[in-house]
Amino acid sequence: MFTGSIVALITPMDIKGNICKNSLKKLINYHIDSGTKAIVIMGTTGESSTCTYNERISTIMYALDFAKKKIPIIAGTGFNSTSKSISIISNLENSGIIGCLNVTPYYNRPTQEGLYQHFKEIANSTKLPQILYNVPSRTGCDLLPKTIYKLSKINNIIGIKEATGDLSRVNKIRNLINKNFFLISGDDKTSFEFMLLGGDGVISVTANIAAVEMKKFCFYMKNNKIIKAKKINQHLNILHNQLFIESNPIPIKWVAKRLGLIISDKMRLPMTPLKKCNQKILEITLKKLKLI
Prior knowledge:
Elements: E1 4-8, H1 21-34, E2 38-41, H2 53-67, E3 73-76, H3 82-92, E4 99-103, H4 112-124, E5 130-134, H5 136-139, H6 145-152, E6 157-162, H7 168-174, E7 182-185, H8 191-196, E8 201-204, H9 211-222, H10 226-242, H11 250-258, H12 276-288
């Protein structure tokens, strides 16, 4: 459940900025039908930072209800406050989620000892499996391999989403940790090389609109069919790059609306709509890839 193609799901909103349950249900069914391995709800791509505490919980519960146990749900439960992360996880303890994705505390810029104590405290508060999430470009702090190693010794810390894009980190982490510890890419454009070096899968933005292709890509990588996987990766490479033409999730929400997966590409401030010039670029790409 923590390997292969896992989608970092967008959070659909209506034109007023309210979370759209109909579109959320449609997205979840799309991933069930496409064979996506699991769904991350309320992660970075899910705009958790502009959703309220109660909206996070309610959206996760909606997802569980819509999924009907046909696809596993991983909840984004990271805050820059240890106590808030513990609080939201306690509300989800018996909900049916298969695990929690916890981003490193943003803005605070804790030390490595602070990061260790943060994740240790969270893990000790619950029986739910915990996935670390390291994305220094957004958070302003970097969870270093030695700290990851220390945390991997805690029983219910079972893996990491490594979104640095630094491929040299894969071997550094893999050489330190137990083989049962999941090493998951959080960067679509380097996911081929990441898995080639021993990664277990990818928590993908691209999978929001190319779910079948990402599923096949990960399947081929895990079954050592590298040539087939490389062909898919080359096909999707332009999307991997252009979906970050502006800050995520601005482009992916626009594309999802363009493809009819959601009713609106609405986001909450400070996130703003995709620029017209970038809409044109993505429109050309979608036609080139025969997605429209």
